[in-house]
Amino acid sequence: ETGVTQTPRHLVMGMTNKKSLKCEQHLGHNAMYWYKQSAKKPLELMFVYNFKEQTENNSVPSRFSPECPNSSHLFLHLHTLQPEDSALYLCASSLRTSGNSYEQYFGPGTRLTVT
Amino acid sequence: KNQVEQSPQSLIILEGKNCTLQCNYTVSPFSNLRWYKQDTGRGPVSLTIMTFSENTKSNGRYTATLDADTKQSSLHITASQLSDSASYICVVSGGSQGNLIFGKGTKLSVKP
Q1: Per residue in B67-100, is it b (16+ CB within 10 Å) or e — as a string?
Q2: CB count, 10 Å around CB of B23?
Q3: Confidence bin at B28 (pLDDT 50/70/90)
């Protein structure tokens, strides 16, 4: 195990539903990340938090809303999603973000299906 | 444009054989290059990380090489095992903002 946990592991939701993904890291890291992984595409960085502050939003649609209440927890709130949002959502953490020289540790991901 | 290209897209080998995966990048300036292994249904796990001055780095049966002049890296797997079946992702850190740029990965299947 990498020290990063994600729940739920699988989620099926309708386009009108509201759901949340949860990520928790037990590594004492200060930076946390959300990534989207679609089939046959590279990982796409969505959001970056450093010391609970959002430092990067990679032009993500507003139907995805992140929340970072403390350095150990990260949420991704979902509402009115589209079928093309179906993907594996990965959370990662690292000691810091500066220069991306710090190793990122990934969680197992949440497999999201939007119907 | 900063890009990371991996080849082949997929590969099937027999257990016990060796294989080499390729990664070419156009990221500039370059900071470091990483190889990750991602098992099906799991998150990526780091295998190696190399900086500009490192030409080769090993992690058990995995050996990564880096040629910063030609902007190429390879991951060599020796004496493959069934558990090596996974996607292998090349990631380059760099660019003007020091972002991580991911390749699409090579899907390796090791057959008995």
Answers
A1: ebeebebbbebeebeeebbbbbbbbbbbbeeebb
A2: 26
A3: confident
The strand pair at B56-59 and B62-67 is best described as: antiparallel
What is the torsion angle, in degrees rounded to the nearest 10, for the CA atoms of residue A35, residue A36, residue A39 and residue A40?
Answer: -50
pLDDT of residue A19: 95
Please give, rounded to a whole number of angstroms, the shortest distance from the CA of B17 to a CA of chain A.
26
Residue A42 has a CB neighbour count (10 Å cut-off) of 20
- What pLDDT is stored for residue A57 in this prediction? 80
Q: Chain A closest CA to B44's CA: distance in Å? A: 6
User: Which residues from A are below 8 Å from B31, CB to CB?
Assistant: 99-101
